[in-house]
Task: inverse folding
């Protein structure tokens, strides 16, 4: 399996900066529309804020990854967020629970050989015993 090409942090930052500014501008327009423009619904404001929240989360993840690549510790990163190193790692490190690999296909069962024929049991004298419980 080939390794994915490394992204240039400067390019990633440029894309994230554009997303951040575009979403922030959109949210500002929704919260405070220009004079003479009807105010959008509160649902539009919620969607805009949620979109901005997602972009900010992507920016934080990218910056934390860059900080780790620069050799910064989880303790240092946690300090920036006012949390412990463990909390910082849980939020940004490790990528969460690793995906469960798919179950490999089960090979087909080989054909079973035929069962050998069992020899007939010899007749035993006096068996079965005679009595009221015996059926023929």
Result:
């Amino acid at each position: 399996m080939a390794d994915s090409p490394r992204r240039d942090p400067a390019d990633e930052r440029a894309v994230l900066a554009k997303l951040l500014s575009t979403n922030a501008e959109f949210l500002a327009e929704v919260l405070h529309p220009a004079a003479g423009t009807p105010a959008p619904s509160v649902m539009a404001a919620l969607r805009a804020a949620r979109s901005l929240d997602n972009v900010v989360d992507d920016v934080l993840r990218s910056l934390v990854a860059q900080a780790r690549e620069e050799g910064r510790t989880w303790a240092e990163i946690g300090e920036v967020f006012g949390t412990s190193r463990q909390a910082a790692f849980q939020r940004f490190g490790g990528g969460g629970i690793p995906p469960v690999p798919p179950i490999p296909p089960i090979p087909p069962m080989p054909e079973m050989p035929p069962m050998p024929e069992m020899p007939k049991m010899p007749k035993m004298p006096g068996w079965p015993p005679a009595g009221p419980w015996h059926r023929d």
